[in-house]
Structure formats: C-alpha cells, structure tokens
Design brief:
nine-stranded antiparallel β-sheet; alpha+beta
Length: 476
C-alpha cells in the first residue's frame, strides 16, 4: 500500500468519525430538547394549548362568583353584573393560569409515587380559597382550585378539580385570582378609537365651547370660528378622553337624583364625540370643591351609565381651551410626502427643484432644474420642506384688508416659495415680505390665497441660500 493510499484512507476514517460524532451531538441535543419539552409538559397543570380558544372564565372568590364571557374581541362580565370587562386583566389571568407549572407534588412518597393527601382542608383546598374554571370553544373545561400560601417559601397549594394530586406553584397565582369587581371591570370612561372620530363638540358652563370636524386634510374648527385646528391639540383632547379611567364607581346606573348629588345635572363641561358610523357619545364632567380638596366626577350621558370618580382634572384641563390654543397657527397646511417640486424666487434669482421617487417609494431624490441641472443634497430640501410645513404665525390677522398687504410689504413680496404636488398642481405659494418693522428677525408672510397675514420667524428666508453651489451634491 502506497503512502498516498494510506493518507487517503486516514482522511476517510477521520471524516467518518467526525460525521458520527456530529450526528451523536445532534442526536443528543435533539433528545435533550425533547426531554425538556416532555418535562415541561408533565409539570404543566392544565392542558390548554392555545389561550385564544378560551371563551368563558368563572372565578369564585371568598366574596362572590364572577363569570366573564368573550364576545368578539371584548370580554364581558355577565355575573354578578353585566359590564364591560378589562381585557388586559382577564387575558393576563387566563394566560397565567393556563401556563402554571407545578414546582413539586405534595404528599407521602411511596414506591417512587407521591400519594396525595386526604386532608385537603389543611391546604385550604376543601373548600378552596379560590376556584378558576376556563372553558374553551368546543366545550373543553379546565378547573383549578387554589389554596393557601406555604409558610416556608410563599408558594401556593393548588389542585385540579378532576385529579386528587396536590401541587405547589409560584405564589404569584394569588395575585392573579384575588380580584374584586373593580379590578375585573373596564374602568375607562368611554370606549372609542381615536382614528374613528369625525366630530368633537365641547360645551362649557361658562357658555363658551367649540366644534371640531375631521376633513380629508385634517381637523378644522367649525365654531365659534372656521379655522384649521391644531392637530396636536385635538389629538391631546381625544387621547385624554380615551384614557380617562375611574378610581371609583359611585353608582352603577345614574338616576336624576344621583346626577344632582354629584353636580352632573349642571356639568362643568360636556364633550360629545361622533364616529364614522354617526354614533354619538356625550360625556359630562363636574369638578366639586369638597372641604380642602377637589373631586372630579364624570359619566356618559344615558340612563344606564355609571358615575365615576376620576383621579385628576387632567381631562377637564385638556378640553377647557380657547380658540387661540385650538387653532392651527401654521401658515400653510400640506402633506410633506406629496411635495414634488419647489420654486424659490427672489428678485431676478430663481431656483427650481424637482423630486423623484424610486419605484418602491423607499427613497426620494431631488434635482435642481434651474438655473442649472444638477443633483442636489436631499437632506437640504427635506429640511426646507419641514421648515415651511411647521412655519407658525406669532401674530395672525385673519381678515386682512387690501391695504394691510401694502402696509406689510406683501403687495410686492421680497421672496416667494411655491410648492407643487405629485400631480403637478400647485399646493400653495408662500409670499414673504422684507424684514418686519417690528423686529429685524421677523417677516410678514401670506399665501397666494391671501386669507391671512402672519408674523413669522424670518430665519427661514435669511438662512435660505440662492446659490446652486450650496445645494450641489459633494463629490465623494
């Protein structure tokens, strides 16, 4: 046998040994994982594979019994009262109980088996402190009895209703099942999705108020004036309303006497929201001074509505605002993503930019078209669009007379910036005066619609270069 043949055989043997070792390692790992999965399955108390299949929960506590049923995506308390349940609390309870794993079995070991104890009362399992029953779609039911805590490590004694075995589980189970009606119910003042709201109407005890409507281009004030509304302010109002929660339920179904007792017959404020389906919900708010403190009460208008106590007056503060706060003070409202062209004019100088998009809309690219055709830095144009989009007036004249434009120097503007949409149509044109007489840092501005004159920060113009070189893409 030649030396080369011996070397070849050695290599083949080494390769075979390596393959066998690799297979053994893989087999051992797979076997270990299977054993671990089997061990976890054996330790799991309830055989619930998917908690989404659970459609009914019965929780029996020392005080009462609660029944909660799933209706669509919403959990509803049906016993002792029919109320909207707190989805997060119910789903958290179901997930915790479904995933319970025993830490150890309780009883005397005999021949490798643990004999369950007969004196269940010693572990507060007969009768149990708590009883949890989960019912799945299709009829399968799982019932767990929860007893007392161990004095040694805080773990809790539990038992399935259909087996004699008693097990110890993590003590967190007590927190999950020791619930009262307040903890299980939905504590929100009103249930709605902010994106569904198309109209907001607020009435104040002072006689003031306002109405806001959603349009295709955003929210607009409709009363007491017709003006664009500040999107952040409107969103803040709706967020405050959607997140308002009870710290206490004072009545379950308010009657006129209850409303008078808590001052809701003469509310401090009311807010009505209307959704796309024309469903209207009115919330009444009242703040009452009680000795050295203030109490804040709320309810939804209707015969079956409970009266809630709120923890703070945050909601009231969000809705009690004036028109000056609610209005959108931006000079021109537009969608930044739809701007496809910008033309800047100052005297004889003119810069014309055009935007193009990749097919997947993942990135836009800007090009200077006039006075020369060159690629430009995208970030500079993106920054200019943002500054124009966010440009707010400090002092706004909403009803300017023709002579006001002359006084402001807007009859012959110093600088104009026109922006166009993706379809080539003009979105709007900003007309800037020279420096304001009030301050050299300010300028007057209007748009081609000439609906108002505003005083704005003039840096948007003073920092705007008219030299193509300042926009040119730098050579790498």
């Amino acid at each position: 046998m030649t030396l080369e043949t011996k070397r070849l055989l050695n290599l083949i043997v080494l390769a075979l040994v390596g393959a066998i070792v690799g297979w053994l390692v893989f087999w051992q790992r797979g076997t270990t994982e299977v054993k671990e999965e089997q061990k976890q399955a054996e330790q799991k108390l309830l055989s619930i594979i998917d908690t989404r299949a659970v459609v009914r929960l019965t929780l029996t506590t020392p005080q009462t019994e609660f029944v909660v049923e799933k209706e669509g995506e919403q959990w509803t308390l049906t016993t002792p009262l029919r109320l909207r349940a707190d989805n997060a609390t119910i789903e958290g309870l179901i997930a915790h109980v479904s995933g319970l794993e025993r830490q150890r079995l309780v009883g005397e070991e005999n021949g490798g088996q643990v004999e369950p104890p007969q004196e269940l009362w010693m572990f507060a399992l007969e009768p149990p402190r708590f009883r949890v029953k989960l019912e799945e779609r299709g009829g399968a039911a799982h019932e767990l009895l929860v007893g007392k805590k161990s004095g040694f490590d805080g773990s809790v004694y539990v038992k399935r209703a259909d087996t004699p075995a008693v097990a110890m589980v993590d003590g967190a189970i007590t927190y999950q099942v020791d619930k009262d009606l307040f903890q299980l119910r939905d504590k929100r003042l009103v249930d709605f999705a902010e994106e569904d709201i198309v109209r907001v109407q607020v009435s104040l005890a002072s006689g003031a108020g306002y109405t806001i409507e959603r349009t295709d281009i955003g929210f607009f004030l409709r009363a007491p004036q017709s003006l664009p509304a500040n999107e952040a302010q409107v969103s803040g109002i709706l967020t405050a309303l959607a997140s308002a929660k009870a710290t206490k339920f004072l009545t379950e179904a308010a009657n006129p006497e209850d409303m008078t007792r808590y001052g809701l017959d003469v509310p401090t404020a009311s807010i009505t929201v209307v959704d796309e389906a024309n469903k209207s919900t009115t919330v009444l708010l009242r703040t009452v001074d009680v000795k050295d403190s203030r109490s804040h009460y709320a309810m939804c208008e209707g015969e079956t509505s409970p009266i809630l106590e709120l923890g703070t007056d945050w909601l009231l503060k969000k809705i009690v605002v004036d028109v000056a706060t609610l209005r959108d003070r931006r000079v021109l409202r537009f969608n930044r993503d739809l701007v496809s062209a910008i033309t800047v004019s100052h005297g004889e100088a003119e810069l014309a930019f055009a935007r193009s998009w990749n097919k997947d809309k993942s990135r836009d690219s800007w090009q200077l078209l006039r006075p020369e055709n060159i690629p430009v830095e995208d970030a500079i144009l993106t920054g200019l669009i943002y500054r124009l989009w966010s440009l707010e007036g400090r002092d706004v004249n909403d009803a300017p007379a023709p002579e006001d434009f002359t006084t402001a120097g807007l009859d012959v503007p110093d600088t104009t910036i026109a922006i166009q949409g993706a379809d080539g149509a003009t979105i709007g044109t900003f007309l800037f005066s020279q420096k304001s007489q009030v301050s050299e840092n300010n300028r007057f501005v209007t748009t081609d619609a000439k609906a108002q004159i505003a005083t704005v920060d003039g840096s948007v113009i003073s920092e705007l270069s008219l030299s193509p070189d300042d926009y040119r893409v730098e050579e790498q």
